[in-house]
Amino acid sequence: MTAFDAEGLIGDLTVTLDVDVLVGAYPDRDGPPGTPAEVCETLARHRITAGAVAGLRAALFDVRSGNDEILALDRPDLLPVGAVDLRDPVGAGGELERLAGSGARAVRLFPDEQGVEADFPSVRHVARRATDLGLAILTGGDVRRFWRPFAGLGARVVFLDTHFYHLGDFLVTAADEPGFHTSTRLLNSPDALETAAGHVGAERLLYGSRTPHYEPVVPLLRLATSGLTPGEVAGVAGGNARRLLGLEAQS
Amino acid sequence: MIIDVHAHWGPWFFTMDVAEVNLAVMDRYGIDLAVVSATEAVIYDAPSGNRALAPVLEGTARLYGYVTVNPRRLADAERDLREYLPTGRFVGAKIHTDYTRSPVTSPQMREALAMLAELGCPALVHTWDASVLDLAQVCLDLPGLRAIAGHMGATGWRHAIEAARACDRLYLEPCWSHAPAGRFAEVAAAVDARQLLFGTDATLIDPASAFGAVAAAGLTGETAERVAWRNAADLFGLEIPPGHGSPSAPPER
Fold first, then answer.
1. B20: nearest CA partner in chain A
2. Contact status, residue B146 vs residue B125, Cβ threshold 8 Å
3. What are the Amidohydrolase-related domain coordinates in residue numbering (chain B) (predicted)?
4. Which end of chain B has the least Cβ crowding within 10 Å, N or C?
5. pLDDT tens digits for A14-51?
6. Distance, in angstroms, between B64 CA and closest chain A CA?
7. Which residues form the domain of A91?
8. Smallest Cβ distance to A188: which of B206, B225, B227?
9. Total domain count, chain A
10. Can you count the helices (H) and strands (E) in chain A?
11. pLDDT tens digits, one per residue of A46-66
């Protein structure tokens, strides 16, 4: 054993649903191929029993065939999440209806990858349609800007890129929006989780790793060493995500 | 045994309250010693921050200090270095290129690093993306300089590999709030283990980020020990508690 004994710090913490998992590869980056088998192996190695997974094929190239790949995944450890292309808001509306009809519980948005800014009409349009269809929304983008198109709709949203630098902005907008949640992936200051729990409640925090492109162990370590109660930790580690996605009755 | 070579003491301007948590945060991860700079010194007023840090270091054996240098205030820096380095509680210098708007290639930065080289004082320098290559070039130009590339270039870790391979007096430490998969493993596989250090950026960033990144690399044996503490002990000449061996002799390269 070396001094860097992460397993010893994480102990028996198990993540029952990771809200930020991808399959597929970025063509502009060196990196993992992101096959479903590889992704599941990485999740299992970190004692993550399930992941809400979206596909980069849908995000970057072709929404329909990409989502079909995801919806066809037949694995208990992968919960399919659809994607739409914000560069095509008209097509996105139709795809949201198809996703909702196929049983998807959430749609993931990739504004950074698609070069879409928060004030583009497309984002507000997709936010309305997804909310009307009962879909939770998992979105990338800078929370300081991307809070706005989701505000006032009663939307259930998980901001996947909330950096602890911007935690205060998330907190002041989440105070007005009960459906706003955040991934813990980048909330890795010494007190971000505790601060968020104190202001809006730990139920707004969802473990997200971005496997296989980020190290899942980092948010695991932060959660395991946090000052949250055991019940709050269990919620962040999957209970909150299951509630948000309507999976409680199945768990 | 773990030594954190990139840490801070003092408050931050973000939504966080971490001014008093250094030792508690170190304890979370089994970090024994940390070399800290005063946030006030880094962000605003170097002499004032250095002065505030000095008594803190007298109060605990677990924190060593960096004298923060503002390259735009070299007279102040020289005075602080000559006052604080002899105490033995300050063991290096910290220069943040962004807060002082002094890129590694700027004249004032080169002058500051030349002064540190002359003093034999290790320098922790903020690097991002390709600027780590600029730091390697300055190291090559200043034979006495030993520099730590803070964040090992962050997004530019592949530049950091190239930089470290160009100059064996350039050290890399991995802290960053982002943790792309495989980043530290890639660096550790390509760079001489004698040039690798452990840094966290605490108390701005929780050590989870750097600790997790290094843990994910699966280092073993001597390499893990070098990253954890041995290289830092050698570089700064730190006294190591009994049971952890003695610092190794400087490598002949």
1. A190
2. no
3. 3-238
4. C
5. 999 999 999 999 999 888 999 999 999 999 999 999 99
6. 20
7. 6-244
8. B206
9. 1
10. 13, 9
11. 999 999 999 999 999 999 999
Residue A183 falls within a domain, yes or no? yes
Which residues in chain B have Cβ-Cβ distances shorter than 8 Å to A31?
180-182
Q: Which residue ranges form the domains of chain B, and what is each CATH number?
A: 3-236 (3.20.20.140)
Q: Are B208 and A5 inside 8 Å of each other by CB?
A: no
Angstrom distance (rounded) from CA B22 to CA B18: 8
Cβ contact B181:B158 at 8 Å: no
- Other beta carbons within 10 angstroms of residue A117's beta carbon come to 15
Contact B206 A31 (CB under 8 A): no
Reference A158, options A43, A55, A241; nearest CA is: A241
Q: Chain A contact for B216, CB < 8 A?
A: yes
Return residues 66-85 of B near A (CB < 8 Å).
none
- CATH number, domain of A233, equals 3.20.20.140
Residues of A (156-175) whose Cβ lies below 8 Å from B: 163-165, 167-168, 171
- Which residue of chain B comes nearest to A163, CA vs CA? B177
What local confidence, expressed as pLDDT, does residue B251 receive? 43
What pTM value is reported for the model? 0.96
Cα nearest neighbour of A169 on chain B: B15
Please tell me what DSSP assigns to residue A5: -
Give the per-residue pLDDT at B253: 38
Whether A250 has a pLDDT exceeding 90, the answer reads no
Q: Which residues of B touch A215 (CB under 8 A)?
A: 179-181, 212-213, 216
Q: What is the pLDDT of residue B247?
A: 52
Which uninterrupted H or E stretch holds B4? strand B3-9
pLDDT of residue B126: 97
- For residue A18, the cross-strand partners are A51
Please report which helix (H) or strand (E) contains residue B34, including its range: strand B33-38
Answer yes or no: are the C-beta atoms of B186 and B180 closer than 8 Å: no
For B3, list phi and psi in degrees, rounded to 5: -120, 125
Mean pLDDT, all residues of chain B: 95
Q: Do B206 and A163 touch (CB under 8 A)?
A: no
Q: Is residue A61 part of a domain?
A: yes
Whether residue A231 has pLDDT greater than 80: yes
In whole angstroms, what is the distance from residue B125 CA to residue B5 CA? 11
Residue count (chain A) = 251
Burial of B162 from C-beta contacts in 10 A (0-12 / 13-18 / 19+): middle
d(CA A135, CA A141): 19
Please give the order of strands across the beta sheet that includes A18-23: A18-23, A51-55, A78-80
**Does B149 have pLDDT greater than 70?**
yes
Residues counted in chain B: 253
Q: What element of type H or E holds A107?
A: strand A106-109
Cβ atoms within 10 Å, residue A212: 24
Mean predicted confidence (pLDDT) in A232-243: 98
The stretch B202-231 carries a mean pLDDT of: 98
Contact A32 B220 (CB under 8 A): no
